[in-house]
Amino acid sequence: MERKRRGPGAGRDSAPRSGNTRKEKGAPRQERGGASGRRSGRGQNAGEVSREVLLNVFSQEPKKVFSYRQLHRRLGVTDKEGREEVSGLLKKMSKGGELIFLPDDSYILNPEFKGRTERSFDRPERSSRRGEDRGPAVSRRGGPTIIGKVDLANGRHAYVVSEESEQDIRVPVERLMFAMDGDTVKVQLRRSRRANERPEGEVVEVIQRQREEIVGRLEMSKGYGFIVPDQKRMYFDVFVGERGLADAKHGDKVLVKVTDWPEDPEKKPTGEIIRVFGPAGEHNAEIHAIMAEFGLPFEFPESVENEANAIPEEITREEIAKRRDFRDITTFTIDPADAKDFDDALSVRQLENGNWEIGVHIADVTHYVQPNSRLEKEAYRRATSVYLVDRTIPMLPERLSNGLCSLRPNEDKLTFSVVFEIDESAKIHHYWVGRTIIHSDRRFAYEDAQQVIETGEGDFATEILKLNELAKKFKEKRFQNGAVNFETIEVKFKLDENGKPLHLYVKERKDAHKLIEEFMLLANKYVAEHVYKLKKGDKKLTMVYRTHGAPDPEKLINFSLFARKFGYKVDLAEGQDISKELNKLAGQTEGKPEQNVLQSLAIRTMAKAKYSTEAEGHFGLAFAHYSHFTSPIRRYPDMMAHRLIDQYARKDFTAEKEEFEERSLHSSDMEKRAADAERASIKFKQVEYISGFIGQQFKGIVSGLTEWGMYVEIEENKCEGMVRLADLQDDFYELDAANYRIIGQNNKRIISFGDEVIVEVKAANVLERTIDLTLVDTVKK
Predict the structure, then answer these.
(1) Alpha-carbon span 467 to 46, nearest angstrom
(2) Among residues 377, 385, 381, which one has the least CA distance to residue 402?
(3) Cβ distance 277 to 290 under 8 Å?
(4) What's the pLDDT at 196?
(5) Which residues form the S1 motif domain (predicted)?
(6) In this structure, what are the phi and psi dihedrals at residue 156, rounded to the nearest 5 degrees?
(7) What distances in angstroms separate CA 337 from CA 1, 333, 413, 528, one per listed residue?
(8) Cα–Cα distance, 406 to 411 (Å, whole number)
(9) In whole angstroms, how large is the CA radius of gyration of the chain?
(10) Helix, strand, coil % in the chain, rounded to nearest 5
(11) Quick check: 772 pLDDT over 70?
């Protein structure tokens, strides 16, 4: 199945962080904030919130984590002054030790201060010694403690990342209290013996667990079983008693819910199986296991489906009268051949002055998905469609994604549009943003449009050729302005009816793909600028932006040193034109074996793209302002952008920044989760595919080096496997990490990152998603 994507600027860039944003269930007004919240519906503004009121909220649910927005709702705070008052109180209470500030900008009651809430934080803190800062809280066990998040490094130890410590805290896995990657924990520090020694500690409390459900393979014994987790960063098994087996059989892939987390590290967590996927290794079992591993939904709630099915299909005359009518203007869609949700279309006509009117028309999803509806809440929860190798997990029910909202040919459709007046040199003279109605004349697959571009013949050849001509000029201007010309490689599969991979190939992006991408980038850029300029001065209207920060200078220097080992001179020192240097490298490596390796490393030097209400710009695209507007069928941030633009157009309206920032953060988190799930499904199919080539030899490139092995990416199919250093028979090899190479201890043979090698496929483990390779020879340069 080919996913519907628009290139690096229209949704292919990365996103940060993982984890859930917890959403509070609504509570009756009289229950929010206890007795102090009973104000006959009147908002609780500045001066009415106190430390005692906040402590009352936290004390009622001492183990609950509260975000800013949840507290504002509980307290009935509705104005900016009130929110600032709450924020200031929370910071004071956190500094005073009554609350714990968590890394995701939320708070929880500090259990060590239970029963001591009468202490005032307005007086100076008493320290153990006069004149000293109070420092980290002290655990009852005697050592200083800090709060942080677990970053699981390997099966021996993890690191806890905390704002309270300049260095990450190393914790042996036996002292983690079964905390997992992303969990928020309290760590008791151990005193270092040497001044420069990395701080170590032990987890004394797991404050917030990211997950209590684990995917794995059942290994049965007499009357009980153990779940061996799929996640490689999981360092423990889960015990399941006879009553919790749920008819699962030995070797099945299952989802287990942990019911007991022991304090004794010698014991195993205990759980019960809540879903059986089938025999491990079987296609559906593995794909369903990946879905469960990343918390992806299996179906829509019945109430959401019912709400979608109840939406009338008819477009009324009253609705048409509110919109600009493009139904008589030549319009078409260009999408993947197997796409079913068409969320963008282009209209083209030449004006009397010789300029061209190009309309970028986007499905008007927010016309059908109303605020506070079940559809809206489910779209927010999912935040994005997910594209696994064999299926799409949509953000919206099929009735909307493939039906009402999809811009199918020969049907009137409601759209939200950006319309440009453009001259022959690709200069934009005017633009307009608003709601429209269109009638698509033709549905093109990318291959159909590419044929028109290459032959100059076919339906709407004049329009397509003009769009392609303008798109190339827009792209040229982007690169002149500093856009970075890196493209990630996308691996595709042809599967049989049972999901077995028959063929693997790298998706090729031609002019037809780039044509669509340029006009989507243009629309996204202009809607962001449109909202940013609506209000003059420093206090701008709230908007959801797609942001991408500049690369880290230290990482750039390290990368430039690395590129030189391949013979490429890349000057990334401070003051240089970074984009120009990176683009030069992209051109020099194009078509060469090291292209993917070097470009992937270059991309890692850059900040991750994310959604934010801060207009921080997009480094990779060289846009000062950029948003996501063009894919509302599959991305929730686009729906937010549509709503905001429409509200600003219709009335004097100011959206709450905190609410949209929270939703942006959630969208970034869910985008990261979707990308991780997609990669896992691709890796599974790559391993399954390469298992049919055991004993065969391939040319590859060294794509990674560790103390125990070197990773090799096979050039032909982009499958990556490992050659274990222990399997190299001619010598004992050691890692020279500083120079990205391994060296034979006796023969001094050197194999470096990026070297071309010949490898043989030794084994492929579908259950572990690993490929073992044997080194046959290195390719002479």
Answers:
(1) 55
(2) 385
(3) no
(4) 64
(5) 695-776
(6) -100, -40
(7) 9, 11, 21, 30
(8) 10
(9) 28
(10) 30, 25, 45
(11) yes
